[in-house]
Amino acid sequence: QHKCQRKRWFKRRLTFGRVRPLQLYSCTNLQETSQELQSGGDRSYPVPREYFDRVTNHHINNIEQYMLLYNHSILQPDEFWSDKAKQVLSWKQLWDDQICSFNFDVEKGPIFCEWFKGGKLNACYNCIDRHVEAGHGDQVAYYAEGNEESADIRGYTYRELLDYIERLASVLKARGVHKGDVVAIYMPNIPELVIAMLACARIGAIHSVVFGGFSAESLANRLLDAKSRVVITCDGYKRGEKIVPLKTVADAAAELARETLGYNLVEHKIIYQRLNSKEHTATMDGHVDEWWHEALSKAEKHCAIEWMDAEDPLFVLYTSGSTGRPKGIVHTTGGYLLYAALTHRYAFNYHPGDVYFCTADCGWITGHSYVVYGPLVNRATQVIFEGVPTYPSADRLWKISAKYKVKQLYTAPTLIRSLMRFGEKYVKNSQRDSLTLLATVGEPINPEAWKWFSREVGENLCPIVDTWWQTETGGHMILPPPVQGFYQKPGSASIPFFGIVPVVVNEKGEELFGECEGYLCIKKPWPGMFRTVLGDHSRMESTYFKPFRGYYMSGDGCRRDKDGYYWLTGRVDDVINVSGHRIGTAEVESALIAHGSVAEAAVVPAPHDIKGQGIYAYVTLREGEEPTEELRKALKHAVREHIGAICTPDVIHWAPALPKTRSGKIMRRILRKIAELGTNVTPNDLGDTSTLSDPQVVDMLVSLYGK
Ligand code: WTA
What are the contacts of 540-547 at 24+ separation with CB within 8 A? Predict the structure, then answer.
């Protein structure tokens, strides 16, 4: 029955008939508001005039042109996306007659979405080969800035990348990796990580990059979920002053996977040597492990390209949700690649020749879309940074920007806040006159950080592009376009990108119009959308499409103002956004409970000056256990070991009991409030506690606050 329904939907052409064109504000109206609200409030700022004096080549001339393009993209999506797909990508074969087919309504059949089906292309070819073929082989693709500061400039040209990619791809093939196999990559943020990703893409293998900060257990879970038989990693790397022994962790993960399955899952490890012989302690197992440099030196120099269907998977990337284990978000080749490239081009007004710097690690979606695929399709020259922004000192980013003459800088609000703390002197010490555009991602940027970024870093000369999007969306969804005549509002991600139809719905899933607040959903498919959760399509349907029939539910709350600007208000589910990283409360809770002394745990977000949100854990101990400082440390350590350092709780609040409803549900609303007591919340703000089975628990918890 499913098949037949699917067929019916497949036949339906993508129509946006019932979508309204973007009704933006009138610019004059905004100018007035900006004057009215000068004393605080939602003040708006035009994109600085100086930006247009300093940068003269623009993909989009002004806001009127942006609106025309936007309206074209949603009223005639077939034409819009077909033109863009031909302009931006090189296809081995064009798609069948259909640009897109989809179903977003759970009642009508399985959820699906397909773009450019039948089209053939290869992501590696689009990122690398075609640029070399077109005579740009000597152009630098990446400047590699390591953990240690050095005066040297180390560049990787497109031709060099191609050489490494082809060799590594040959090695993978020789080790039995086939189209559709999932290869795990567990590396620091160095060009070799990109090489590993593209080597997979070249032969049609699906890469699964696991952030280098994750623990052995987290890596093991991902290896098991995707059945990865091959792992590409390195001996270790330095992060600030610390050595991270990556190979040891990868070995432990492989061992955990073996214990779980009862046989060896990981058959091959390829190890890039990043540390010198004194630093690294990697022990090599001759049956499983081989050095990257040795394998590549012996490898076949050329490796044929595997032409993929546009809908063949390109990669899987795990992300935390409100329940259960992290989900393997699957992106496919054609739509994702186009969407990453187009957003990169327009959001940052990128032109080949500009030096662009995104501070994200490739272990996250921002690295995938805006360090690897988007920029490479656009033949970018970029800086890839392995280290941390405060090592050896807090001016590292500005020094890098000056050293490479960075034009566009893409970073995160948490990072801006952490650097603000050091004061302006670190910024002022550096030459930043190459910077023309600044951008952020990961969480709402608080107006204070926005203004500091604009004033201190950008000297009020640069647009600030605050991009809202998610692992699932593949690329930017809502952002302030850096075009003439556009008014920016600090703290608002602003307006939708081409092809995106955001809607705000209420609890009942009814669409709201005009000024409103509710849940942010997306109404129509877009090319960069994820296609499924690896191995569990029903989880994709129930998480994203069941809550509100007919819409993709983002999990974020949002307000739309009278000018049509979107203001993201944070997650509406049990996901904590720590420094722009999604942490599932359930994962942290189960790591705490795994510790023998814990009977029960509940984890909630709490406001944090730098990280945006911190992790606040209520812990009920087992009978006979004493709440000591040592135990506190041990519990934090346990979480770090189970998941990774980014999930370490900031606060452990001892809880003799947890507030529960009569049916036994933990009242997280109250726990969140108690966690905010340090701010301007008082015990009187805790709200209705009458539905609790034992209202006194709340008083007890309040009295233990800060203890
Ligand atoms: C949050 C990162 C407000 C949001 C690309 C979203 C933001 C989650 C912004 C996705 C922004 C990201 N303004 N909130 N500019 N950017 N978020 O999957 O809650 O790691 O749902 O993707 O981060 O995080 P993810």
Answer: 540/111, 540/327, 541/106, 541/110, 541/111, 543/321, 543/327, 544/111, 544/472, 545/104, 545/105, 545/106, 545/111, 546/106, 547/509, 547/519
